[in-house]
Amino acid sequence: MCPRDDCACGQASISVSPPAVHRCPMAEDSGFTDVGPSEDPPGVRNGFPPPPPPAAYRCTLTPELVAKAREELQEKPEWRLRDVQALRDMVLKEQPRLSTRLDDAFLLRFLRARKFDYDRALQLLLNYHASRRLWPEVFRDLRPSAVRHVLGSGFLTVLPRPDPQGRFILCLQPGKWKPSDYPFVDNVRAIYLTLEKLIQPEETQVNGIVILTDYNGVGLSQASNLGPFLAKKVVGILQDGFPIRIKAVNIINEPRIFKGIFAIIKPFLKEKMAERYILHGSDLNSLHRSIPRSVLPEEYGGVSGRLDSSVWARTLLDSEEEFVVAFCQPDPLESLAIPDSVLFEGELSSTQCEDSYRGVRSQLYYCY
């Protein structure tokens, strides 16, 4: 049985040995092309040894979270390992050369993010890996030390205490970013590393996260850097390429220019996600109705001390080795030609994006 005394998973803990490394020629109807994998010596992939096998899966959910997962995610403890095996079998059968982890804990992230719908979980897994090819500027040499300057700027942090629903709060302060210091893509790299760290605990996989974005200090110099192509990529990865549940996006201190910023982002948001955006302006009482004062820092009318981004920065920097293993390896889809349509549904054409951006830019200057 599960070794945790407080776990209600009701199942045995098993170890799944990771299969041999694979690469993936996507299904023919998805538009993927297999250009032919190269042969590596046993135990070596393009000169890199494989990462160590993951530890055996251990259920860490409390009885309350087991019940929540059953109600909200259709996760049945008695069927959990069967569902994981079903997704594993789909990967091995439909994408036999995909280089990916296949252990229980990893696959559960994708099943939970898609409410145990096998097909949608598999597509999310493919998108997760395909994003590395589609946006190499983000994923090349992705490690905390490479974004130390972002972590030190105060652009992002995670508040030390979760909210009453058990959701950790990712706090973003885009006004801290100066375009003359470094490109916006470095902010995206830091956000992605943060999400990778946050999604590791099973509690976050069930509860999801909340985003709090403070637009104080954001002006035309920051806003004009966010064009539709960049917005499409960021939103596409968050919505369709990462196994995390974003339950709310709270916006505070938004300036007049935010109307133009949101006009860039909104076309790429699914209806359900767009409904989760909450605009508070400078009304802290409104913010406190969404996030209680008990978990907020003093800067936002809370009682949880001063906002300190250094603690989260140190958490990421101390995790350097695990990110090197995860991201500083050969591309899992390096031998494939992957179309952009893998990640983004209903995307605008390049001409539509440019036309849209012209209109938005004039709107940004007008608002400013």
UniProtKB/TrEMBL annotation:
Domain of life (superkingdom): Eukaryota
A GO term for molecular function: phosphatidylinositol bisphosphate binding
InterPro entries: CRAL-TRIO_dom (IPR001251), CRAL-TRIO_dom_sf (IPR036865), CRAL/TRIO_N_dom (IPR011074), CRAL/TRIO_N_dom_sf (IPR036273)
Positions of the CRAL-TRIO domain: 143-308
Disordered: region residues: 25-51
PANTHER family registered for this protein in UniProt: ALPHA-TOCOPHEROL TRANSFER PROTEIN-LIKE, ALPHA-TOCOPHEROL TRANSFER PROTEIN-RELATED
Protein's name according to its UniProt entry: Tocopherol (alpha) transfer protein-like
Lineage: Eukaryota, Metazoa, Chordata, Craniata, Vertebrata
